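Q: Predict the assembly, please.
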Amino acid sequence: MIEFRRVHKIYEKNWAALKNINLKINKGEFAFLVGPTGAGKTTLLKLIFMDESPTSGEVIVLGHSSADIKSKEIPYLRRKIGVVFQDFKLLSDRNCFDNVAFSLEVTGTPGRIIKKRVLQALTQTRLSHKRNCYPFQLSGGEHQRVAIARAIVREPSILLADEPTGNIDPEGTEEVLELLRNINASGTAVVMATHSLATVEKYHYRVIRLDQGEIKHNGLLTEGNL
Amino acid sequence: MVYSLRETYKNFVMRKSTNVAAVSTITASLFVLSLFLLGTINLLKIIRDFHPKMDMTVFLKDNMNLKERREIEELIESRAAVKHYEYISKEQALDEFKSELADTPELFEALDVNPLPSSFRIELNQPHSNPDELIALASALERMDGVEEVKYSERLVTQLQRLFSGAILIDIILGISLCLATFYVVGNTIKLLVYARRDAIEIMKLVGATDAFIRRPFLIVGLIQGALGGGFAATLLYVFYLAVKMKISGIVFPGMEMVAGLIGFGSILGLLGSLISVRKFLKV
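A: Predicted assembly structure:
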């Protein structure tokens, strides 16, 4: 489903964000991406939804290779990938319903389908009662749940979460994690970047630890390997 | 399309002052340009209405033979600048001269030979239609055997040519300058709109909106700005025309063609301006 083959990503001034990354993430898998700030977690996620392209090597996502994908094909690939961020990226002038619907509107989904699917996504994220609320009326956890609803409303095959619990309280963190686990249980592969060791230790999922752009650990967590 | 129109509406409402500034600048640019075009059109009309009858006379040598005369005739017939021509023999020329000076017949009593040359009298098409050809015809005739001299209103033709060429040149230079100014203003408006909508654009890219979809509302904004600017410029021009008409009778207004042209040209300018800036600032 996701494969990195000898991927290097070098930014300006010869700064290597990722070095020789070889990685496979399978269908329906849940993987944590951990590492200190600047380790390359966000770059790795960006390579998956092709917001960046590798300096060398190849990233293959849902059958599309970074080596030969055309720029006009990227939007269609992104429709199969949901992305959530630490800073939520909600539109402040739209309520919850419209924020989630936005994701379908801009991909040309007919209005009657939009309504049905948005309400389903809001129900799944337990926000249907707040569908008319604006972002400023929501808590941090609720913000992130709206962002997740927006990411899953297109029923993606992959969900990427970049520090989704970084800006929310412990209670909200629990809710978001439960939600991501439920989404994963329905067959969506989830890759979640996090700083939180407590979160990683609590769930027995695969852990990919990055440090200075290199994979230092790739597998289930055992004592002493973090 | 519903989404694009809604976004276009938002872009207009969100940045009212910017949009008003852009439409005003396009209006001013197109109004100035259309004023010069109106001037050129009326200059053309003046030239057409008031130009003197353009004649060319080709005086022939007395010793010209028939073959030379035939060749001269062939050359005259082949030129587009020639509307009509006739051969005036030495005798006809003398008769005309005598009839013009009928009050003083004693002038001719002393003449024992006819001093007037034979000639071709050529009536020309309007000089502004092709002054270059007119000058070229005169030069060609002067080089031919059997031709003594070619007379025509050379100075007037070249003056009209210069005036007309000058007006067209000003129109072109002004047109290009004002197009660039319009591109700049529309471009800046789009830049501000892109900046104001950057969050929405980022999310659109994230969720898989195509580049064309993201660009479309901005292109529509540019198109509408241009069309409005063109429409306002046409209105101002018509008001100007009505005001001038009261003082200068005979001034012409090209009518709906000018209005449609200004709106169309404004729309194209607005669309191109926004297309350039959307490519530059949107980075999609």
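Chain B has two domains: 2-48+166-282, 55-152. The first helix of chain B runs from residue 2 to 14.
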